[in-house]
Amino acid sequence: MFEFFWNLASFVIALGILVTVHEYGHFWVARKNGVKVERFSVGFGKALWRKTAADGTEYVVAMIPLGGYVKMLDERVDDVSAQDKDKTFNSKSVYQRIAIIAAGPFANFAFAIFAFYLMFLIGVPSIKPIIGDIIPDSIAAIAQVPNDAEIVEVAGKETRNWQDVNMALVGEIGSDSIIIKAKANDSQYAKSYELKTKDWQFSPEKQSSLTSLGITPYRPKVYNELALIGKDSPAEQSGLLAGDKLIAINNEPLEAGWLDFSKKIKLYPNQKVDITIERAGKLHDIMVTPEGVDQNGKLIGYLGVSPKADSWPQAYQIEISYGLFSAIGESVNRTWNLVTLSFDMIGKLITGDVSVKNLSGPIAIAQGAGDSAGYGFVYFLGFLALISINLGIINLLPLPILDGGHLLYYLIELLTGKPVPENIQEAGFKFGALALLLLMGIALFNDFSRVLN
User: What share of the chain is helix, strand, coil (3-state, %, to 5)?
Assistant: First the structure.
């Protein structure tokens, strides 16, 4: 239950920030172009807070935090006095209207740069992309990619951590081959390896891009031995102790060690389980009842223990950080790369290279917000930047109900010299609403499918 409310609060905060940024872009440019703004609202529905400024603009925070809007004076929908006719949105030139509408998405891109800038100033603890193992007969194995090597480049893009590697690989979905460069621990030089990806079967909802290629990242060795017992946890109440070696669950040997134990214990929420342990050279059977906890809408067993594990080698740990000025260029570059990657993914959704099953909705975003906030402020900044970019891109899609649809109408007006007829605009808005509802429906269906699975 705590996880649900944590995710919800993180989602509301994240969305509130990004919606405010987006609408402020419209608001600021509209004011700069002499348009009278009647209302600036974050959220929809009943107003929780409102204030009217001296210039007549009403500022509102509403109950439903799933968007926002800026209401500008417009003769097409408002009764406008003679002295205010030059302050209406529709009275402005096409170029001014384009600037006002485009300002929202571009405010999101600017915010992403700012968030990345703060993130790089603070510094992001990270891990070098060291390969732990190559799965036999996989795409990576056929390309003879070695174990214990560091991936330094994917498709011409430098990779400093696993996030860089994943982003570069996802950007190559649909390619017949991917060139990666990897450097062995005992070498200063990287070798190139060609991954034949024409028949690459990658399902992001089921596995990572790395696993689908046969690459297993290095992880410190985890032992089949308890290192920590949570205070007042089911494990402590049952009598389990640090140092106990795990042997079996319900008389089934734990052949895969800790990973096997971790998977199986989740299958028994609020159910008695017989755990066989080795303590001081002797075997003991201990009955435990894992607590049922909610994980992404699914009840799993929680015992409250941690295993003994080796530490990450110091040489594998890095911190990605930049100075006051170098962080600007890096944050702009990161934002640009994500913008181009996102547009590329939209293109691959249209061509079928990427399945619509990969679309995510508010549930997945809420989970991502909660997870990133739980990891710390610097990771939450990265999450905000990523979602801000996606919000900007979605609004630039040429659907008439979105900013991109309005921009399409204004570009047609620029080319033809006259506005798109009202009846065509109205039909377009209806089509845009249906298309957007369809996309939202698919995204929500995908969210629920992931939760149920």
Answer: 45, 25, 30
What is the crossing angle of helices 377-396 and 94-122, to 10°? 160
Q: How far is CA 40 from CA 26, 35, 47, in A?
A: 10, 13, 12
Known active-site residue 23? yes
Task: Please state the φ and ψ torsions of residue 249, each to the nearest 5 degrees.
Answer: -125, 125
Specify the amino acid at residue 370.
G
Region 280-306: mean pLDDT is 86
pTM over 0.85: no
Is residue 386 over pLDDT 70? yes
C-alpha 93/C-alpha 88 separation (Å) is: 11
Closest of 139, 146, 215, 152 to residue 178, by C-alpha: 139
For residues 42 and 15, give the distance between their C-alpha atoms in angstroms, rounded to a whole number. 10
Structural contact between residues 384 and 115, judged by C-beta atoms closer than 8 angstroms: yes
Q: How far apart are CA 209 and CA 215, in angstroms?
A: 9
CA dist 337 and 342 (Å) reads: 9
3-class SS string, 132-162: EEECCCCHHHHCCCCCCEEEEEECCEECCCH
Distances from the Cα of 52 to the Cα of 37, 40, 60, 63, 79, angstroms: 11, 10, 9, 18, 20
349-353: long-range contacts, CB 8 A cutoff, minimum separation 24:
351/174, 353/173, 353/174
Confidence of residue 354 (pLDDT cuts 50, 70, 90): low
Please report the pLDDT score of residue 257 as a whole number. 83
**Max intra-chain CA distance, the chain:** 93
What per-residue string of b and e applies to 313-342 under the rule 16 or more CB within 10 Å gives b? eeeeeeeebbeeeebbebbeebbebbbeeb
Calpha distance 98→414 (Å, rounded): 10
- Cβ atoms 361, 446 nearer than 8 A: yes
- Say which of 3, 23, 158, 172 is annotated catalytic: 23
Of residues 296 and 409, more confidence is placed in 409
Token pair for 235: 């494990």
Q: Which tens digits make up the pLDDT trace of 243-254?
A: 999 999 999 898
CA end-to-end span of the chain, whole Å? 19
pLDDT at 178: 93
For 137-168, the pLDDT digits (tens) are 999 999 999 988 999 999 999 999 888 888 88
**216 — phi, psi (to 5°)?**
-110, 120
Distance CA 450, CA 453 (A): 5
Mean pLDDT of the chain: 84
Mark 92-104 as b/e (b = at least 16 C-beta within 10 Å): beeebbbbbbbbb
